[in-house]
Structure formats: C-alpha cells, structure tokens
Amino acid sequence: MAPPVLEFRKVVKRFDTVTAVDAVSFSVHRGEIFTLLGPSGCGKTTTLRLVAGLEEPDSGEISIDGATVAAPGRGIFLPPEKRRLGMVFQSYAVWPHLTVFENVAFPLRVRRESSEVIRERVGQALQTVGLAGLPDRGATQLSGGQQQRVALARALVYEPAILLLDEPLSNLDAKLREQMRFELRALQKKLSLTILYVTHDQTEAMTLSDRIAMVNSGRLEQVGAPEEIYERPATPFAGQFLGRTVMLEGTFRRSAAQQWVELADGERIPARMDSTGSLIDGARVRLITRPEDIVILPPDRLEPTQIDAIVEQVDYLGDCFEYYLRTAGALLILTAPKKDRYAVGAKVRLGFDPARLSLYAQ
Amino acid sequence: MDVTATTARHSIARVRVRPIRIAELSFVAFFALVTGLPLLFLLGGSFNLAAPGQPAVYGLANWARAFSDPATVNALWMSFLLSGARLIPAIVIAVLFAWLIARTDMPGGNAIEFFCWMAYFIPDFPLTLAWILLLDPNYGLLNSLALELPFVHSAPFNPYSFWGIVWVHTSTGGIWFKVILLTPVFRRLSAALEEAARVAGAKTTTVLWRVTVPLLSPMILAVAVLSFIRGLQSFNTELLLGTPAGIYVYSTRIYDYIRREPASYGEATALGSVFIVALGILLFLYWRFLRGKRRFTVVTGQGYSTARVRLGGWRYVALAACALYIAIMTLLPLVFLTLGSFMRRYGFFNISSPFTLAHWQDVLRDPIFFLALKNSLLIATITAGVGVVLYSMAAYVLVSRRAVMAPVLEAFCWLPHILPGILLGLGILWLFLATPLRFVFYGTTWGIALALMVSDSPVTTQAFRAGYLQLGADLEEAARVAGASWGYTYRRVLLPLLAPVAGAIGLMNFGGALTSISTPVLLYSHQSRPLALLMLEYSVTGELERGAVLGLLITAMICVMMLIGRRLGLQLSGQQ
Amino acid sequence: MRPFVILLMALLWSAPVLAQNSASEKEWNTIIEGAKKEGKVVVAGSPDPVMRNEIIPKFKERYGIPIEFIAGRSSEISARIKTERGSGIYSVDVYLAGPDTTATTLYGEKIIDPLKPLLIMPEVANGTKWKLGKIWFADPEERFAVRAFSSVATLLFINTDQVKPEEMRSAKDLLNPKWRGKISTEDPTTTGSGANSAARFYHDLGEDFVRKLYIEQKTVRTRERRQMSDWLARGTQPICLSCREDDVRPLIKEGFKIVEIFELADMPGSINGSPWMLTLANRAPNPNAAQLFANWILSKEGLGIYARGYGSVSMRTDIDETNLNPGNIPKKGVKYFDDTDWKWIVTGRQEYREKVWQVLKTAK
Questions:
Q1: Which positions in chain C touch B239 (Cβ < 8 Å)?
Q2: How far apart are CA C78 and CA C84, in angstroms?
Q3: CA-to-CA distance for A278 and A359, rounded, in angstroms?
Q4: Are B368 and B376 a contacting pair, CB within 8 Å?
Q5: Which residues of chain C are within 8 Å of residue B259 when distances are taken between CB atoms?
Q6: CA angle, A78 as apex, A77 and A84 as ends, to 5°?
Q7: pLDDT of C103-132, one tens digit each?
Q8: In chain C, what residues touch B244 (CB-CB under 8 Å)?
C-alpha cells in the first residue's frame, strides 16, 4: 500500500501552558477528504497550521508523501514554502494589492514558471473555480464568494500534494455555502485531490468527508467514516457534537442472565451484552441515542424496550410534529410523522432500539 | 549497540538554526553595535573625571554637579509640563486630520495632506520668529489688530509665556509629525469595521472615537510616546519664547553643558540619562498595553474595502476647518518666512526698499552650495532607502510571535530617540573611530547616512511595527504556504502592503536627513559635506534670511519628492 | 592678574626694524613645492562666510592648493578633534579658533605645535609690518598662538529714539529706574557673550552693581542674537548689553537711530582679538601646506581679506583701515581692557562668571 500522503505521529504543540495539540496521530490517504471536526479552540486549526509549517511542533513527527517535514527530536523542520501545499485561509488572505490574475499566479511566479505556463495554468485554475472572466479585477473589488474562489484557485494552481482548507466556507451565506460545498466535492473527485479540511460545521463534515476526526481539547476522540462516527460515537462528546442526541441517566444493573439500565422513575431498558464491557453492577451511566432512533407509540403497547412518557408540548413543523416529552426525569425532544397525533397531556410509550443505544460510564 | 549509536547521534543535538532567530540575533547585534555601544561610551565618559588627556579617574562628580543644581529639577518639571500640555490637543487634532484625510469623503483631502507635509518641513526656528512678529505684545500684527477692537484695551496675546510656547508648538513640526504617521494607517483600515459600527447604530463621531481610534490605538499610542519624548527635547521654540519669560527647559540645560567652553559632555550625558528612565517607563506601559501581538489586525485579506465615511454637508465644513487651521497655523507663518527670505532684514517692513533678491543669490552662488546639495541628496536617499528596508525588517522581528528578544531589540531601537543629536553624533564618531568601521564610514557620505539612519530608528521601527500589527498574519502565511521564501514574501507581499507607511517614513527620513545638523557636524569631511553645514553656518552667524532661503529650498525638495513618492507608493499598493 | 595692556602706538612706530627669521627665496619655494605635493590643507574653525566665500578661492588662485574647511561650533570642533586624536587620527593642519578654544583646548591639551619658527614668509617675518614691531604671540610661552587682530568692542548699544546719549554716560546710568525692563542681554546664565559682559561688569563695578543691573532692573534675557538687535531697533528694549556689531551695523545703515557706546565714564573700553587666533596642529598631515597657509593668512593679502570681511582691526601696519568704523580702531595712548587677554580667558573670566552665576542664582 502506498504510504499515506500525510502522517502525524504523536504530535504535541503547546502554547505557553495550553496544550493545543496533544499527542495526535493520524494519516491521510491519497484522494480522500479528511476532516478535522470540533468546536472552536479545540486545536484543529493548530493541527492544520502544523501541517502547513506555520507552527512548529514541540514533539512528535509529521511526514508528507513519506518525507519527514517536522521532527523536533531529530532537528528537522521544513519551512512552509518547501512543503508543496495549497491552503485556503478562513479569511481567504487574498492580497489586496494584487489583481485576481496575480493573486493566482503568485505560486507559479515563486516557482519561476515561464509566462506562457503561468497564463495557461492561471486561466485553467480560474476556469475551474468559475472566475474566468475576471483576471484583471483588483482583489478588493470582489465579493466574498469570489474572493473565496480566488483563494481556492491560488491553492490549486500548482497541484499541491495536499490542499489545506481552514473553515473555507464559514464566511459565506447559507446558499453560497451549499453551492461551494457541492462544487468542492465535484472538484475533488475530478482532480482526485487530497484534502485536509478543518471545520466546526457538522453538516459540512458529514457531506464532504471521506473520513472525519473528532477533535476535542487537542485530542482526537474518534476517527472514522461519517456514518461510523454518527452511528457509533466512541465518546459522549463525539455523539453530542455530531448531530442531536438524546441522553438519559440511570444505574447499570446486571444479573446472571441479563443486564439493564434502571432509570430515575424505576423504568428499565435492557442493554446489549456487547456494549457494557467492564461496567459493574450499580454504576452510574449515561444512555445515549439519536432522536430518530426512538419511536413514539400509543400507550397500550408494552415491550421491554419501551418506557412511559407524557406529552408536554407539540409544535407543528409543516412536514412533521415536534413533541416535548417528559420521561424518567428528563425532557426529550423528538419529531414524529404526521400520521399519528398525540395531544398535550397524552400518555405515550417511547420505543428504543437496543442496537442503537450507547452506554457510557458517568 | 547500533540503536544506542543512533540515539546518541540524534541527541548530539543537530540544533536547527531558525531563520527568525538568526535575523533576531543579527538585528540585536547590529543595534547593540550602533546604538548600545555609543551610549555605553557616553555613559562611561560621564563617569570619567580626569582632565582631558589625563589617565581616567572614575567618579560621580559630573552626575552630582548636573543634578545638584535646583534649576535642573525646575527645568525638568517645566519640560514635562510643556510636553504634556501640548500632547493631548495635538493628538486630538492630528487624529482628526488623519481621519478626515484618509477616511472621509472630505473634498481636497490630498491637498490638505500635501500641506501637512509641507508644514512638517518648515524649519521651526524661522517659524517661531514669524509667530513673534504676529503675536509680540509691542509690535505683533495680531495684537495691533486686536487693539483696534473697541473692547480690547491691552495686547491680548503674549508669545513669551507657557501657553505661547504651547500654541506655537501646535503649528510647528510636532503636530504634522503625528498627522504624517497616522494618515497612512487610517487609510489602510478596512471600511467594514467602521461600517459594522454604523449599522449597529453609531453616529459618525461615535464610530470615530469608539471604533476607529481604539482600533488604531497601537499607532496612536506609539505616536504619542514618540511625541512626548520629542517634546521633552524640543529646543528652539523654548529658547526664543521661554528665555525672555524666564522659562527654562531641560533640553536647554543639556545644550548649555554641551555648548560650554570647554564642553561638559559628562554632565550632558548625566542629564540625558533622565530620558532613559522616562523612556523605560513609557516603554513598559506601551508593552503592557500591546501585550497581545497582532491583536489589532485591521487589514486582512478578506472583505477588504476602503469605502469612505460620507459626511454629507459637513464635508465642506470639515474642509473649511482644515483649510482654516492650516492657513492660520502654517500658511500665515510660511508667508512670513517666504517674505523673510526676500527681505533685507526679516520682519522689518518699514525700512526703505525692504525687499531684495540678494539672499537667494548669495545662497545659490555660495561655492559649496551645489556640492553640498549633491552630497545631501545622496545621503538623504541612502538614509531613506536603506532605512526603509532595514527597519521594516527589524519591525517584522519585533512583531514576530517567535521572536524571544523583541523587548531588547525594541529598547535598542528607542535609544537614539533619547539622546540629543550631538551626543548621538559623538557616540557614533567614537564608534567609527574605535572599530574597523573607520575604513568605510569615517568621514564618508555612507557614515553620515548610517548615523542619520540610527537616529531615525525609533520613529521608523515604531511606524513599521504599527503597520505590521495591523496587517493580518494570514496574508503573509498564504504566501509562505504558496511556496514563497520569506524574502520573496517580504518583497512581493509585505512591502507593497506597507507601501503607504513605507513611503511616508521614507520621505520623512529623507527630509530629516536634509535638515539634521547636529549629527553630521562631527562626522563630515570636506568631500562629504552636506547642506546642513551651510545651515549651521547661517544659524551660528545669525544669517536668518539665508536660513529661510535654505529652509524653503529644502521644503520645496520634499514637496517634489512627495509628489514622486505618492505616485510610486500608490502604484505599489495597487490603489487607483 | 592684570588684564590691562597698554598700547603705545608711538612707541611701536619707532621700534627697530627687525627681520625675524625670514626665509630665503629658495627655502620658501621648497615649502610651496612641498605643499603642492601634499595637495591640500585642512583648516578647522567656526562657521565662517569669509573663509568660504573669499579665502578658499583666493588661496587656491594664489598657490593652486585647495583648502578643506571643517566648520562647527567650537565645542563641536573640540569634541571631534579630541575623539579623533584619541583614536590616532590627525586630520587637521591649522586652527582658526576663538580665544577660548585656543587657550583652553588647543593649548591646554597640547594639540598644537610652536608656530613661531615657521613664520618665515618675508612680509610676515618682517617686524616692521606689525604694529607691535613683531608678531604677537598671545600664549604664555609666546610661540604658539598668533593674535592677529585687536579691535575696540562696543560696550553697549542704545536706540536714541528713547535713550539720549547724554543719559548713558556711565555704567551707573544703566541703573536708572527709567530703564527697568528696557535693557536686553544675551542670557548670562550660560557661557557666551551675555555671561562675558556680566563678568566684565562684576570685575569693574562689583557684585552689587551686577545684582542691581540684572535683577532689579529686570534685564530681559534671550538666547538668540537676532532677537536683541530686533528689540533694539524696534525700541522694545532700547538698551542692549551684548548685541553684535555685525547684527546692528546694517540696522544703523537702514536709518535706525542706534548709537554704539565704546566706553563709559566708570568703565574703560575693551579690545578683543576676534574673529580668531591662529595655531598650527601638531602631527599635521600636511605640514608644508599648513606652514604655507599660516604664513599667507598673516600676509597683507590674507589678513586684509579678514579685516575687510569682519570689520576687524588687524595687527599689521600695511592694511588699509580707512574703511573700518573709526570707533573700532584703538586710540593711541588709551588704556583698554583686553577681553582676549590670555590670563583673563583662562582663569579670570571664569572666576567672575562663577561669581555672576552665584548672584543670579541666589536672587531667585
């Protein structure tokens, strides 16, 4: 198997007393979009800057295309300009004193390409991002979306080993963001780009990524395909950050034959054997699942995987209803199709899918 | 065994040499050499009590003598009062000017800016004399006019007073110095930041004082600190207006020691050291204030727009106010100065045929004029050109997050600001003579240029520093990631983005190099004699009218350079 | 200390004609040749328009040798020279410095060589060409510093629109309450002409007079020479203690009613050696050129240019003095106070200056 395009091995980066990147290891393979997802201040941008060479790691090793670019232990550090990367900054960093053409041509001029090559490749790059008509515009005369495209064209123009995208869509309006997301994915497929993508937006991460790394407080909590992380979050953080979750607290119980979680009002939900691992009898646990994995049932249905609830509020959302349900000391917000309708104050049963329940020790 | 060997080899520390560290070290070394060493020499000399030519004897007598005089303490207090009293109004006026010129749609902004530049280079000595002609209680023009009014019974103005000195300072270099440094920074401010405040419901003036000014606070603060210390050292106006009123300032006392026969450089240095303390305190406050580096990023690569604030009908009021201020504070004295250069005796209108071309003819016919002019232009060009490159890099190191010696470097860069020019010149003369630098710099135009460059370092580094603080780091990082080396990034991205600031600084240093007397007087030789020596001549021999001619010629040269520089700078920065 | 010299012109005229060590033509030509080989002479002094505009072109015309003139305030020049010498650099050949610099720095710190044996140009070495019958060496050893001028200096100036000459007959007249706030002087609290004239008042008339004049009379101080002469002409301060002739004379020509007072009943007139004294640097880089210049500047041609340029009275006998202000020419048989007297400069004036400063300080 070809070596990964990018590899982090136990990389640590500290700022004064804060550890921004804490022994992070991962690899990015050719042709994939690898996303660092996490809240702001979690260290994802620092990770990206470490790749770019804009920060120096304190320990660990980083290699690009099999070549070590940063390894403080061995005294290796390759400055950014030697790493053959493309980067789009959150602010785009389009140079206000240069025209669109010159902005995009910059990486080629640095590499002393001939003027024909420059003209051709810049033309192509502008074509690719849909800015073919504007090469002579001053960079300051462009709209936000256009500046973003200039930044992208500039990053693409010399075919970098990896394209680094730092929240590239966060400054665009919703519609433009959707369109750019679509175009970006298409472009990546067409040019088979390797992309390291940083975002705090889970929708972007879910729709764009081949793999996602959940970043929290400088650590990678989970790395995997979007579905995998969504369906089976390895930590409560991963589960909570990626989409809505429903959480109930209770006590873990086990007997010789079975195991279950006892909720606040004495209700019980059985737990699968494989998900409980080392939990001991009587441990406080959290029980987490996705709202779409709970069904609202009439009160007459009685199954072991169901609990009682009372409807406190109903909102009409057009294509469905949203129910506020009080159960086991918690308030759950669930949507349900329009075919069933329960009034405020009605008693219902909530049906859980044991295969989609996650248990975490508290 | 193999494993151990490998580990050992790694731990032998192939210490990676970081470029920023090298740059930092070389700048610190350079400034230690050109500013630290001369200062050490002066300080060392101030403790030497032996008669000249005798073996050195060290002691505190010079210091004790300098500070035991109660007049010294009084003068110091007076200096602080004067410098402080004019700082606040001057900063407010300068900020208003810079804002109106750079951020609003006031018509004629370019012309106003041009006049500010011109005003900066009008020599303060003849300008003060012009104010005396206007305000003197006995024969001042404005007093005479005021006495014509029915309700005025005694002369309302008296320039020979504390407030007279403050007033005249608001028309001489000080205020224009601030406008010149602030305008390019205002110009670079992204309009979005102001627009955001407007949308949030703030009035134009609220935006100015609550958003624009705080955003630009690093530069405004730097300018204030520079001005305050500059104010402490100001000299000519205090001499002309203060002495008759019995107002003595600290800088006068320093010069007394220097001009004494024989000169007491030891006492002068001892007095000068007070500025080091003042500087230390101000620097400490400044550093505390600016602790978060690049916190004041206002130029980014995103949504960059320089749309100007619309003033509506007020724009004509603003223009009228600016024009009036310039007319009263600058043009009026300038007219007197120009008249003075054509008068047989400056200020005497009632002698028969008071006007003459003789002074102009004399200056232009002076055998050393053209050689000196050539030397001066060469020196000024070197000073401005090399200075911009050198200090823009030094300032880069100052703002770099990776620099660990920035405070040391910054302190070195400030040092020349606290030394009177003649002491700095003496220190640098010693440096040239005591080191191998002698062969390149002693008595040459390059030597004078280097000395002038050293004396420029505080203003220049601070201006660039503020410029960088307002430049988003991403613009530079984008270039690095795109494959550009630091040098290429500096040339193609940083310097063009700083072009307006760099242009202003270059021009200022150019003009400063033309007019500085005290620094080159110890360093010139026959071949490298600059125009300033002719100015010295006129000032020592009291040839005021010829001094006015030279002052006007230099002002004219600056104007030409400014027109050229503007064109170049605007091209470089991609505007228009 | 006796700062008085007696100039008895009659005696001088009858002095025996003594050719001092005059050179042969051949010797003289060798010096000129040597000077031409050295190619230049470096002269240091105060900023000097006469030097710049007249002496440099004339010397070049005469001998084909350029003068490199290093100008600065005397304090600047001495600082520069001392630093240079400290580093083993000897750049200057000849000094044309004021009496203070010459006495305290150049002579005091042994920067100069004896000049006497080198003055061999026939018209310079010839004693009959000098009013004293010989070249006047002002230093105690009488061989280092040539004093080439001695002119009577103005004691004070008055504007007769407001001050009648008969109201200013003696120094005591200055204390008339009528003139309170009407007298100007260069600031006496620092070195310079203001302090010098105050020292002279102290020397002649004592502490009480100084206190009354400078404090009770509210004498107005300035640091700028132009200001005093402007005030004098406009009548703001119609009495000026330390104005300069070259500032005031043009005003008199313009018709301002200004009168120069050279002597007072209780204060004899003074003479001084301005604009400079001539000395020769030791270890001069261009010794021949230095010797040539030193001789030429003391010749009729050289001194003549300076006498005319500054209106100063030279010590030579053969320079036309008809164009000079008669008041500046020392009168025969009159006792003058010599303001450039070596001892007065080195010690006396400083002592009195300190006393003046003490008076001014305690008054505050």
A1: 223-224
A2: 10
A3: 11
A4: no
A5: 73, 75, 190-192
A6: 155
A7: 988 998 899 999 999 999 999 999 999 999
A8: 220-222, 227
Chains C and A touch (3+ CB pairs under 8 A): no
Pairwise CA distance, residues B139 & B143, whole Å: 7
What contacts 24+ positions apart, CB below 8 Å, involve A63-72?
A63/A6, A63/A7, A63/A9, A64/A5, A64/A6, A64/A7, A64/A161, A64/A162, A65/A3, A65/A5, A65/A161, A66/A3, A70/A11
Residue of B nearest to C67 (CA): B526
Residue C322 one-letter amino acid: T
Q: Which of B242-246, B271-275, B375-379 has the highest mean pLDDT?
A: B375-379
Provide the sign of the torsion angle of the four alpha carbons C100, C105, C108, C114, taken in this order.
negative
Whether residues B352 and C254 touch (CB distance < 8 A) is answered with yes
What six digits make up the tokens of B333? 């004295």
Average confidence score pLDDT of chain B: 79
Grouping H, G, I as helix, E, B as strand and the rest as coil, residue B350 is coil
Are residues C316 and C300 in contact, defined by beta-carbon separation less than 8 angstroms?
yes
Whether there are 3 or more C-beta pairs closer than 8 Å between B and C is: yes
Choose among B222, B220, B214: nearest CA to B286: B222
Q: Are B383 and B453 in contact (CB under 8 A)?
A: yes
Cα of B108 to nearest chain A Cα, Å = 24
Residue B62 CB neighbour total at 10 angstroms: 22
Q: Tens digit of pLDDT per residue, chain A (362 long)?
A: 567 899 999 999 988 788 889 999 999 999 999 999 988 888 888 999 899 888 889 999 999 998 999 998 888 888 888 888 888 888 888 887 888 998 899 889 888 889 999 999 999 888 888 888 887 887 777 887 888 889 889 988 888 889 999 888 887 777 778 788 888 888 888 888 899 999 988 878 888 889 999 999 889 989 999 888 887 888 888 877 877 778 788 888 887 778 888 887 778 888 776 666 677 788 888 888 888 888 888 888 777 788 888 888 888 887 888 888 888 778 888 888 877 788 888 888 888 887 777 777 77
**Model pLDDT for residues B351-362, shown as the tens digit of each residue:** 778 888 888 998
Nearest CA in chain C to B138: C236
Exposure on the CB side of residue B339, measured as CA atoms within 13 A: 15
**pTM for the full predicted model:** 0.76
Q: Do A76 and B16 touch (CB under 8 A)?
A: yes
- Where does A197-333 have alpha helices with state H? 202-208, 226-231, 236-241
Buried b (16+ CB within 10 A) or exposed e, A20-58: bbbebebbbbeebbbbbbbeeebbbbbbbbbbbbbbebe
Q: Which residues of chain C have pLDDT under 50?
A: 1-19
Chain B: touching chains (3 or more CB pairs < 8 Å)? A, C
With an 8 Å Cβ cutoff, are A54 and B479 in contact? no
Could you say which residues from 376 to 415 on chain B have a Cβ atom under 8 Å away from some Cβ of chain C? none
- Interface probe with B: pick from A110, A113, A158, A171, most Cβ of B within 10 Å: A110
> Chain A closest CA to B483's CA: distance in Å?
4
- Buried b / exposed e along C29-58 (16+ C-beta atoms within 10 A): eebbeebeebebbbbbbbbbbebbbbbbee
Chain B interface test: which of A13, A64, A98, A106 (most B C-beta within 10 Å): A106
CB A121 within 8 A of CB A156: no
Give me the residue label for tokens 């530049």: B117
CB B519 within 8 Å of CB A120? no
Pairing of β C94-97 and β C112-113: unpaired
Residues 6 or more apart whose Cβ sits within 8 Å of residue C167: C173, C176
Residue C148 falls in which region: left (phi positive, over 0), alpha (psi -120 to 50) or beta: alpha
